[in-house]
Amino acid sequence: MEVVEIPEEPAPRAQFTVDDVDIEILPLIYEIIR
Description:
The chain is 71% helix and 0% strand. The protein is mainly alpha-helical.
């Protein structure tokens, strides 16, 4: 039960996830709008 290293990685990981998601969603949205 190590919940000390988990709360320290969600911050930097959340930003990376948003960037990755945005980069992958942007092209999808453009294709749907077309």
